[in-house]
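Researcher: Please predict.
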Amino acid sequence: MRVLLWHVHGSWTTAFVQGPHEYLIPVTPERGPDGLGRARTFAWPGSAVEVTREQAARAEVDVVVLQRPSELEGLVADWLGGRRPGRDVPAVYLEHNAPQGRVNDLRHVAADRDDLTVVHVTHFNDLFWDCGSTPTRVIEHGVVDPGDRYTGEVPAAAVVINEAGRRARVTGTDLLGRLGASVPIDLFGMRSEQLAGAPGVRSAADLDQAALHAEMARRRLYLHLVRWTSLGLSLLEAMHLGMPVVALATTEVVEAVPPDAGVVSTRVEALADAARRLVADPEQARLMGKAARAAATARYGLERFLADWDALLEEVGRR
């Protein structure tokens, strides 16, 4: 199949384009949000092909994977020469995010559409989004396995947050200082230097994915303090690496991290205690990391993820 999708979420798309299809990735000269093109810091296969607006208008497209309201509201039609997603070309709406706002007001932009399927990446999101009569499907994340690389040689916690300063309470940035009083924290991610000087927190360099995984795996544990998100892919990647997890018990985390893989709690003091214990006990950290990897590869493996998507794309393409 020929699948059109924008490069919106680098880690998710890296897994998605490993499938057997041809993936048309819009690109513009300035490589902005509506034409980022192929990834430069992730490994993508040759089947992920950049297309200009002119090429897309002439392209045969079997299905469109929508990911943003603007795509549904006109961007796709602009690129496909007037062809509308759902009506003129089969389409699914992939919702990456947990909804924002009051629980009674969480209406999805694709609600009440009999020509679309909304795909959620977690069961938590499917529970909270109001999609009306639109059919929904949950296809949980899949991760390209970086391998069992854990050494835990650095007695510190790894945290990955892009733009930690701007995202603030959403990503638990305000909690880093409290946890940093218990264990050293190495913060990775784009613009992590914004937090330089926070107590106990060392800002690491912005790295490509391969280098990031290597550095994460050297830390004793992975710390996940995000209050509100679907399910951080960096958390699943850390588990694939074989890292034990200390995480806030919010959104989908309680489903993803079993008890033998780490400590999950809404009590910051409990997380601080767990981080201290793991830093002090490398053997316990190693055993928890093995359990984390086993759980992640079983539930969030690439083969299951691609099989789920193949089945849905084939179903939608027959409409």
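Model: Residues 2-142+302-317 form a domain with the Rossmann fold fold (CATH 3.40.50).
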